[in-house]
Amino acid sequence: MTWLDHIKQAALELAKAGIDEPNAEARYLWVYATDTPLASWLSGNREIADSDVAQFYHLVGRRIRREPFHYVVGQRDFMGLTLVTTADALIPRPETELLVQRVLADVRPDMHLTIVDVGTGSGAIALALRRYSSGSVAIYATDISPAALALARANAERLGLSVCFALGSLLEPIEFPVNIVVANLPYISVLEKEHLEPELSYEPEVALYAGPMGTELVEQLIDQAREKLIQGGHIYLELGQGQSSRVLAYLRNAGFIPDPVVYDYGGIDRIVGGTLGG
How many CB atoms lie within 10 A of CB 52? Predict the structure, then answer.
């Protein structure tokens, strides 16, 4: 078989397994497994080794079992940063880039701020904020999972970005006033667990599921943020579909003046936020 035959065969198997973009994934997995750009294969400058084929079908097999693509290849691009991804933390989603962009829209270069990313996971939000904000902004990140925090620290070190990491639940490790709280917390209801795509079974449950409503952890964070934020401080939150009305009401009752809702690429009410005490 030629290298192209292997890709075609893998794409057929991936399609049978229910993968949405089998051809694109098969091509990428071939390039990743062989550590050789597609252009080199197209130009005929590369011979197929047995080890290439073995590694390729090993990766394809993992994907057929519906292990998430970004766990299979071990990385994910986020806001121009390449992050290592493991099953210790949630895979960063494109929608979360909207959350980072929303925060950055309010952060001017001359501002001296303290920002806390709560539930940092792989470190995606904190590291993107560090990359695109000035040195006068201090970035902290918390997580309840030691394994996730170790991954975030490793990503920070590899990227050469300075973030202060702290182990603990929500804002509990933060013992000083802050200007901004940002979070993409678990927002899927546990009642939906059995009805979701199989890939989610590979991601850590602690990073996915809240209580029956799906907003329980977000509401806990709002209560804590009310005590940690300075007057005029801001909170930014990523939510699941249909949760914005409930969370906006909770923000108002907690003394926040809500921002307009930000909708994602699919028209879902994805980002909410508010200013404490006006």
Answer: 18
